[in-house]
Structures are given as C-alpha cells and as structure tokens.
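pls read this stuff:
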Amino acid sequence: METTHSLPFDSFLHRMRNPASLDLVRSIKSFIVSFSFYAANPENDGKKIQDFFLTMEAAIRDHPLWEDSSDAEIDNALEGLEKYVMTKLHSRTFASSAEDVKMDQQISDKICLLQTFLRPEHLDIPPVLQNESSWLLAEKELKRINAFRAPREKLLCIMNCCRVINNLLLNASISEDRVLGGADDFLPVLIYVMIKANPPQLHSNLKFIQLYRRQCKLISEAAYFFTNLVSAKSFIVDLNAKSLSIEEIEYEESMQAARLVDKVPQVTLPTLDKVSTFGNLTDPGPSTVMHKRKTNITGGSNYPYMEAEAGELTVGDVEKLLSLYKDVVTKYNTLCSTVRHLSISKTVSPASEGANDLLTERDETQKDTSCEGD
C-alpha cells in the first residue's frame, strides 16, 4: 500500500531556504495573496492553479538550484509546491460554494439511510466475493480522505482503498478458481464500501482532487481508481429501487423506516463538570414548583419537567430527572429496535515576505504527512 511521506515536501522547503530561491518564493507568495482578491469560483480557480503549476514547473526546471537535477527531483519539487500552495489555499478552495456544501450533506444523509438495510446481495455482489470483515480496511482508508488538505494525500487514500478491494477480489478469484469480471466485480464492491464508510464531504473531496491535483498525475492507475470512485458517488446520488436487487415496496419501506429512526430526537445530559458545580449545595428536596405540576396517575403528565425553566430546578429534582431520563431512553431504544426490525426482517441476513514564510509555516503544512496503510 502506497504511503505519503514528507520527503518531497522536506526537499522543497530545503531548497526554498536557499537565498538563491528568493525569486521563486516571491512568485509563490504573490500568487497565494492575489488569490484572495477574487470571489470563489471552483472551475476558474482550478484553471488558475493548474496554470500556475505549469508556470512554476518551467521556472524550477530553468532555475540554478535545480541545475542537473533528475526528473524525479523536479517532480519532488513540484509535489512539494502543490502541497504548500493547496494547504495555504485549502480554506479558500475546499467546499467553497454553497452548492458543494449542500451536495455533501445530501449524499451523507442518503448514505446514512442506506446503511440501515443495504446488503452486498442488493448490489449483486456474488457470495464468493463477499468479505465484509476484510473490507473494513478499505473503509478505513476511504474515511481518512478528509483528514488531509493536499490533493495528493487525498488521492492516495482513494488509491489505497481501491487497492485493498482489488487485492481481495483477486485473492477470492484465485481461491475460487473464478475469472474476475473487471469493473463489473470491482465497482459494486466499491459502492458498498463507500456506503459503509460514508466518508465526510465526499463530493467536495472528489471535486478538490479533480480541480487541484496536477493534471499530469491523474493518469493510468490513479485515473482509473479515481474515475471509479466518481462513478460510485454518482450511482449513490441517483440510487433508487431499480438500481438494486430489491422490490420497490421493500426499498421504500426500508428508506421510510430509516427516516423515522433518524428523526427520533437524541437525549443529552449535562457533562460531569457541569454537574459537579452543584456538589457544595445543600439538597433542599424536590422543588415546590415541580411538585405542584406533578399530577396523579389517572389524569396527569408523566413528565412534569416539560414546562420547567432552568431556574426552577433544584438538586432535589436530580433523582426524578434521572428516572425520567432512563424512561425516555428505554422507550427510544425500544422504538429504534422496532422500526429497524420492520426493514431488517424483510431482508436476508448475511451468513492535509519571503523565504522565512516557508520555514515558519512548515509545521502547519507538515500536518499532512502521511496517508499510510496499516
């Protein structure tokens, strides 16, 4: 599994410390500062940054500091440049439009619903290729995509995820003496892994890579895996009963049951720190106001604190509140279990000024140092 190490970035910073690089440092700083002068426009921003990378590539190749450097050394410098620039511009370029933010939320919400009932067989994944416990590693890699701010690191998370799936499918085909069906076998598993992982801000992460990863790097294997992930996202966005091996009424009922569970309010308690602030108070017993609101079993409310104000509560009310809280949680859990059973019972259970700028900000950009596999 490929890892993202800091060597290209360290090498880039090391060259930028040299006084002879002052012209390059000024160009980089000027570009970053000027970028904030314009309103966010993802497509235009992407073109500006790609053009800047090409301009800087020519400048680096012709620069005395890289005289007699190999293509690999030039590439390392450009990788360091990309990471530095995109880390500095991350807040300006990532999820920069309201539409992207909305799409991220819609995809995440839909995946949350699908997670409650979708099984591998719904995506026509053959039993011999099903390996959910091993797919967890692929899910873990995909979940990490939002932990990095540089396009390269994000892309490597995708590639690591896809390589895990590819290797598992290959091993399964060998052990079962089965010929792999290429994308026909790979894509359904990737879709299932994506649904199980529900990586945060999926749409924005894919768009960020597409716009800001150096175009010469989105080729061959990287392009293949990235394209498959984009296809998987599109499949989920458009997914309905006809997309799956499931009866339409079962799909609709399962989605509705998932929505009902999602809408049940969560009960929260004060933190221990907040509770401990009452430790030195003398317990005056249950509050008089609350006591007057309590009604008998034949005609009153079982939750007398519903209309209470914070100032009306006393330490004496804690015991009653705890009892009521336990009652609410018990009923909530019972409701969740019942609603889930309605959908699950219908499915088959599976067996990241000048040279000093680049030095002082090194720590910030060094946070995106790895996308390592275990």
Notes: The CA atoms of residues 222 and 256 lie 38 Å apart. The mean pLDDT is 81.
